[in-house]
């Protein structure tokens, strides 16, 4: 049997329950992974509460989670390049909070041997979202990038990927996270009144692109003021003001190649993964309460 997180109605974290399910068998071209760790994202809580219903309606009893790491324990017909016993990092849309997941073989890459399970479990979703966003915003060497919520899950990855590309990064965060951002290579700036002026002081030569992971009107308005080219300002958050301001809505374009680039950055030492807390899957409701505070530093991860 397999421990699996489900919910049968939209609501608060208390609607989440861990049930025993029969693991599925992988069909042709698919693999089954015994999950060791699965990341918790703000989207998971939004979806559980019904906030994404217009985009992705639930099918109750609904599973959750979009990123995982584990050990391959079965392979389907025709699978090559992946074998039982391989340690992998991957993604399974609305299915990753489970002790076993079945996914196409092309949705996993090899886990770096030096990467602990909790770090591997949080790499795929936020890492690929950050990488996609920087690609869409055309961030490269010599650019100055503004990242809002730079100490969060997506922000942490965006700062480091941009730095690896040769960009200067200014990151907004609460003051308690400023030392953390400096450690990542970013110039920290505090939230609040006068944000745009503080960013101008931190980046006197101007800001070329901006990525909003905070989802506040303040962040979007500051970005629109600071970046001349609106095609180089984007948000990953559900914020109605984005349309009014002409800001790009950014999603994730996942691929094995993109994920492999992230694991390569990790192996080179250019990408650090910050875990705020590793939480047993039986405490999934507590994990959702924490993610809903909006004040996590790095990532939360469920452990199986």
TrEMBL record:
Coiled coil: none
Keyword 4Fe-4S: no
Keywords, ordered alphabetically: NADP, Oxidoreductase
Keyword Oxidoreductase among UniProt keywords: yes
Molecular functions (GO terms): mRNA 3'-UTR AU-rich region binding; NADPH binding; quinone reductase (NADPH) activity; zinc ion binding
Residues annotated as domain Enoyl reductase (ER): 11-302
GO cellular component: cytosol
Protein name according to UniProt: Zinc-binding dehydrogenase
Organism listed in the record: Microbispora catharanthi
């Amino acid at each position: 049997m397999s421990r699996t997180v489900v919910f049968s109605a939209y609501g608060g974290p208390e609607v989440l329950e861990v049930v025993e399910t029969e693991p599925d068998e992988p069909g042709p071209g698919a693999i089954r992974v015994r999950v060791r760790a699965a990341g918790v994202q703000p989207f998971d809580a939004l979806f559980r509460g019904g906030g994404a219903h217009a985009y992705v309606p639930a099918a109750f009893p609904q599973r959750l989670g979009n990123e995982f790491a584990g050990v391959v324990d079965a392979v389907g017909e025709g699978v090559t390049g992946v074998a039982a016993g391989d340690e992998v990092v991957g993604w399974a849309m609305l299915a990753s909070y489970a002790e076993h997941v079945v996914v196409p073989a092309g949705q996993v890459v090899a886990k770096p041997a030096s990467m602990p399970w909790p770090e591997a479990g949080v790499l795929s979703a936020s890492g690929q979202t950050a990488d996609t966003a920087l690609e869409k915003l055309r961030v490269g060497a010599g650019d100055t990038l503004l990242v809002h919520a730079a100490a969060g899950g997506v922000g942490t990855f965006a700062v480091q990927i941009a730095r690896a590309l040769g960009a200067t990064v200014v990151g907004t965060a609460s003051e308690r996270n400023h030392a953390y951002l400096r450690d990542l290579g970013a110039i920290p700036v505090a939230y609040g009144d006068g944000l745009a002026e503080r960013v101008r002081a931190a980046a006197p030569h101007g800001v070329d692109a901006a990525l909003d992971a905070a989802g506040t009107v303040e962040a979007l308005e500051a970005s629109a003021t600071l970046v001349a080219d609106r095609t180089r300002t984007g948000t990953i958050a559900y914020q109605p003001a984005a349309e009014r301001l002409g800001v790009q809505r950014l999603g994730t374009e996942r691929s094995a190649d993109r994920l492999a680039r992230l694991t390569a950055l990790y192996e080179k030492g250019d990408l650090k993964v910050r875990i705020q807390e590793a939480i047993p899957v039986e405490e999934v409701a507590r994990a959702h309460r924490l993610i809903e505070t909006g004040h996590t530093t790095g990532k939360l991860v469920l452990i199986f």
